[in-house]
Each structure stands twice: as C-alpha cells, then as structure tokens.
Amino acid sequence: MFADIIVDLQYGDCGKGKVTHALCKRGNYTHVIRYNGGCNAGHTIFHNGHKFVTHHIPAGVFFNIKSIIGSGCVLNVSQFFKEIKELEDGGIKTEGLIYVAKNAHIITQDHLDEDGKDTAIGTTKRGNGPAYRDKYDRKGLRAKDIPELRPYLIDLYEELHIKNKDSIVLFEGAQGFGLDIDWGDYPYVTSSNCISAAACMNAVPPRNIRHIWGVAKAYETYVGAKEFQPKGEIFNKIQEVGEEYGATTGRKRQVNWMDINFLKKAIQINGVTHLVFNKMDVLTEIESWSLVENDTMKRFDSEKGFTEFILKYLVPQRLHQVHFSRHKDKI
Ligand code: IMP
Ligand code: MG
Fold first, then answer.
1. Which ligand has the nearest atom to the CA of 123?
2. Contacts of 297 (CB under 8 A, 6+ apart)
3. How far apart are CA 98 and CA 151, in angstroms?
4. Of 183, 206, 208, which Cα lies nearest the Cα of 269?
5. Hey, which of 36, 45, 124 would you mutate to test ligand 1's pocket, going by the most ligand atoms within 8 Å of its Cβ?
6. Spatial CB neighbours of 88, under 8 Å, sequence gap ≥ 6
7. CA-to-CA distance for 305 and 290, rounded, in angstroms?
8. Which of 104, 175, 262, 328 has the fewest Cβ atoms nearer than 10 Å?
C-alpha cells in the first residue's frame, strides 16, 4: 500500500479539487480519502461539462473510485446525504463508492447553533470548531453511533491493512497551510491540522507516503474575520477576474500578492514533492505580476519574469515537478 497527498499551501481555495480530479483521471488510485475538516470545505469540480460543489465527499467518486471521509474529519449527516443526492441527480453513480470512517466525529445541531453565533473568527458556521472541541474533550459522537450511517461505515485499518494490502490511496486535504490549527495565523485558523502529516492519522503511516502534491495560487486569498487585503483597486480586480468567492459561504475572498517566503515554509513543512500553481492566467489578464519577498513587494513585467523568479527561488526545495495551470482551463 502507498499513498499520495494533496495539500493546499496557502489559505484554502487554491484548487485542490481540480488537482484531485486530474490525478484521479490519470492515476490508478483505489481509494480517495479526505483527511481533515468538515463541510466548511467546498470543492468546486467541473466534470463532463457540469459544475459540482462537494463539501464532504472526495472527488474520487467521479471516477468510480472508493471515496472515504476519513477518521480525521467531522461529518454533518444531513449534508452528507444531501451531497449524495446532488451527485446522483447530476448523473454520478455513488452506490458502493462512498464511505465514512467509523471513527470520524459527528457535527450535531448544537455544534451548528454554537458556531452560527461566531463573529470573532469569521468561520463558515458549519459547526467545525465545536465538533472538534467535543472530540478532544471526549464527549463527541462518532459515525458508528449514527444508525443512518451504518451502510456507509468503513474501518480504515481493515480496509487498508487487511482486506486490500495493495491499495493506492490519494489523500485529499481540506482548507490549507495558513489555516492549520498549529501552523496557521492562530486564532484565525480552522480547528484541524491541514498539513500533509495529518493524512497519516487516517491509518496510513508516514513510511507509506509517496508523492506530496502542494497546491498554491499565483496570488493569495483568504476568507475570514481578519484584515488581509491591502488597499488598492488591483486586488478587487484580481478578486473579480479570478471569481474569488467562497464555495461554501459565497463570501468574497480577500486578496493579496503571493508571499514567497510563506510559500517556501509551506513547501518545507508539508514536504512537497510536486507543486501546482493555479490561476496563473488571472494575473496575466490584468497584466500585473507581483509577489512579496521579505515583506517587500517585487514587481515583474511579464508572466515569464514572474514564473522564472519563482522557479529559481524554489530550486533549493528540490521539487520533482512544478506545474502551472490556468483558471480558464476548467479541467
Ligand atoms: P471554520 O473552519 O469554519 O471554523 O472557519 C475558520 C476559518 O477557516 C475561517 O476564516 C474560514 O473562512 C476558513 N475556512 C474554513 N474552511 C475553509 C475552506 O475550505 N476554504 C477557505 N477558507 C476556509
Ligand atoms: Mg475550497
């Protein structure tokens, strides 16, 4: 058994769904497992010309691959069934493909009510924080306690270590490095570990990890209560051209230039081997290419200059592959 991991290197919304989709199409994965988070996540996926937004269910389902909500996740049961219905209504076969780790924790109505009152962090109000708090307080409900989930339950140990020893797993992370509870800008973070290491808490040990796909954007976006976007019309332009709206809450995402030092740190802590930059064409459309290095803005006069600088800067990271992708290419 071995596994690849997809991890977001900024503040979520860098296009992990797109990378999952591309890897599922060309890889021979037997399982796709979401390793952290709940329905605070929103993955926008274009499949056969249709747009799907999934919150819980990993993108493996579009390719007939077993798709599992892992033990590191928290689950809203009614949202889970709603998504299955939306997929079925959109012509995607889900039967026998979707599973929930029996030890994943449950988001309850109380969690939703409590998180609904948040104003300090700017959460997605999906009950994520209270559900994780109760998990660590040892008061949580787990998937195996919910009768409606019985047909979907899976024991990740049995599945990956006993029944299918030759599994090839793709782990799909949620949120991103800048929102990680330990490595993000606390308290403006989510309530789980988003970094690649968190994948290994879903029954796959570190020695079985093969590639780590880090996903970044040509600029940064963030949704939440802290002030993130600097003054300047240019950022509104990027927001518009990049269609930067939260997939879960519809909120406008705040925009800033890419911080290259932060990206390097994310690559190092996540152990990235393969790097994808999404939405390169957005900066090209507005004809402005800048990034921040050591708190100082650096301007470039072409996409070529911008990408050359990034590639040169990242040479010491010894990445196996770097890909640049465009917003226009939906898939
Ligand atoms: P929570 O995860 O709903 O508790 O929200 C905590 C912070 O993480 C807020 O700033 C949210 O906007 C942000 N957040 C949570 N999930 C996502 C995501 O999938 N993409 C981007 N931001 C997210
Ligand atoms: Mg998202």
1. 1
2. 257, 290, 291
3. 10
4. 183
5. 124
6. 94
7. 10
8. 328
Amino acid identity, residue 266?
A: A
Residues labelled as active-site residues:
13, 43
Q: Which ligand number lies closest to the CA of residue 11?
A: 1
Instruction: Give me the percent of the chain exceeding a pLDDT of 70.
Output: 99
Cβ atoms 151, 77 nearer than 8 A? no
pLDDT tens per residue across span 35-80: 999 999 888 788 888 888 899 999 999 999 999 999 999 999 999 9
Neighbours of 153 (CB within 10 A): 16
User: What is d(CA 309, CA 253) in angstroms, rounded to the nearest whole number?
Assistant: 26
Q: Is the CB of 126 under 6 A from ligand 1?
A: yes
Chain centroid to Cα 65, Å, comes to 18
Whether ligand 1 lies within 6 angstroms of the CB of 221 is answered as no
Question: Which pTM does this prediction carry?
Answer: 0.97
Task: Give SS3 for 144.
Answer: helix
Say if ligand 1 is within 6 A of residue 191 CB.
yes
pLDDT-derived band at 330 (thresholds 50, 70, 90) equals low
Q: Which atom of ligand 1 is nearest the CA belonging to 40? A: 16
User: What residues contact residue 175 under an 8 Å CB cut-off, 6+ apart?
Assistant: 8, 11, 12, 36, 37, 40, 41, 190, 192, 194
- Confidence band (pLDDT; 50, 70, 90) for 18? confident
